[in-house]
Amino acid sequence: MAGTDQLSVVFSALADPTRRAIIAELAVRDATVTELTAPLAISMPAVSRHLKVLERAALISRSRAGKWRASRLEAAPLREAADWIERYRRFWDESLGRLDAHLAAVQAAEAGDRVVADSGELA
Fold this sequence. Notes:
This protein is mostly helical. It contains 5 helices and 3 strands; from the N terminus they run ααβααββα.
């Protein structure tokens, strides 16, 4: 993805549910391709291709110890993505807060109208 900013590469890598499952597993512990393949319904070569995408996005690093190659979660790019999303969460929280206030005002006005209408019926 030459010319693509890092945040776009991270979101693209996270767009796939298999890669998100791999990230979730690596959040618990470092793992080999064999260990990552066990809970998934895909082949080891497919898992390896997903790992390459995650590695290009800098979401994982891979190390070799003898014949074993372990993958490790690199959380910094996730923090950057979370920080970006956080700005928009605040926007939605504020928007929903204003909507709550508006609905409360509408409900209060309707309740006041019912009291006036009910009192008019009693007279």
